[in-house]
Amino acid sequence: MAAPMLSLFLMTKPFKRILFTGAAGGLGKRLRPHLKQFADIVRLADLAEIGPAGPGEEVVQCDLADREAVMKMCEGVDAIVHFGGVSTEVEFDPIMQGNILGMVNLYEAVHKLGIRRVVFASSNHTMGMYKTTETVDASMPPRPDGYYGLSKVFGEQLSRFYWDRFGIETVCLRIGYCFPEPTTHRQLATWLSLDDLVQLLGRSLVTPRVGHTIAFGVSDNPGKWWDDRHSRFLAYKPKDSSIRFSEAVYASGVDRIDDMDDLTLKYQGGLFLHNGPKYKS
Ligand code: NAI
Ligand code: 15L
């Protein structure tokens, strides 16, 4: 890896080869064309079929739960953008495989192969049991809203351990709602535009000395719930705001304020609270 400032001066890309997991997913497809600016070669990986590699790309099909395959997938890369895994609240087994075992396998490979930096797609669901009336920052204790959020807390803590013990740097992005348009009040607060995600990802890859950092992936939305005081050194400056969608969301009448006793409006985790672990009464 060329030092980021030096690479700017020399007009080279900051990395020779980066690995991008989750490349067949929703964000994977949208981010793919933007990753080329950061590396000569982008290695795209997923459990699902990705299709053919384009110029400057490599393609690897890999289950994160398969330790040997993960080791191979990570060979020869300088940094990892880790977006692969289960992305919603489902039963525990697939979450265990993709997000827990998968993270252990990935960091074992990162450590063994001497890879120095990872950007990890964590989630706002690490904090989903905070109320929608609260402002959360990265120093507050995690309060996950289900197995999925718990698995992301595990990923954050695992990467913390690898920083403390082995000096491997990770930026954990607690992404809000990164889809083209917000359509609910919750999404107005949590929306992250693609352009802002690309900027945040870039800052997370090239900022020198990030150590272990938790950053909130959110645009400059009015009424957002998250305070980025602990990651300001990344110099992420969101350019988008959900405000331009608010009129349409208000007019649609979804999740109105008089529904506030609904769990999904009371807690930041929203609808994920309806899908979490269920117990017999
Ligand atoms: P997605 O579900 O569309 O993509 C995830 C990809 O991971 C899929 O292509 C899937 O095949 C792959 N995957 C699942 N299990 C795997 C395994 N065992 N081995 C290898 N690959 C596996 O999700 P999306 O929306 O693209 O999100 C990407 C990442 O960002 C996820 O980690 C998600 O948790 C995180 N995130 C996304 C948010 C959003 O608004 N889209 C919000 C917060 C976090
Ligand atoms: C997430 O963590 C999910 O991956 C994404 O699909 C959205 O549901 C998002 O959170 C959200 O909270 O809206």
Explain this structure.
By secondary structure, the protein is of the alpha/beta class. It has a single domain (10-275), classed as Rossmann fold. Helix content is 37%, strand content 17%. The chain contains ten helices and nine strands. The strands form two sheets. Strands 3-2-1-4-5-7-8 form a seven-stranded parallel beta sheet, sandwiched between helices. Helix 3 (67-74) packs across helix 4 (92-113) and helix 4 (92-113) packs parallel to helix 5. The protein is globular. The termini are far apart. The model has no long low-confidence stretch (mean pLDDT 93). 1,4-dihydronicotinamide adenine dinucleotide (NAI) binds at residues 22, 24-28, 46-48, 63-65, 83-87, 97-98, 102, 121, 123, 175, 177-179.
Bound molecules: 1,4-dihydronicotinamide adenine dinucleotide, D-galactaro-1,5-lactone
Q: Tell me the helix content.
A: 25-40%
Extract low-pLDDT stretches: none
The biggest beta sheet reads: 7 strands, parallel
Give the number of DSSP strands. Answer: 9
CATH class: Alpha Beta
Rg value: 19 Å
Topology pattern, helix = H, strand = E? HEHEEHEHEEHEHHEEHHH
Mean pLDDT: 93
CATH hierarchy: architecture: 3-Layer(aba) Sandwich
CATH superfamily: NAD(P)-binding Rossmann-like Domain
- C-alpha geometry: globular
Number of helices: 10
Separation, N- and C-terminal Cα atoms: 55 Å
Strand content: 15-25%
Number of domains: 1
Biggest sheet: strands side by side, in what order?
Answer: 3-2-1-4-5-7-8
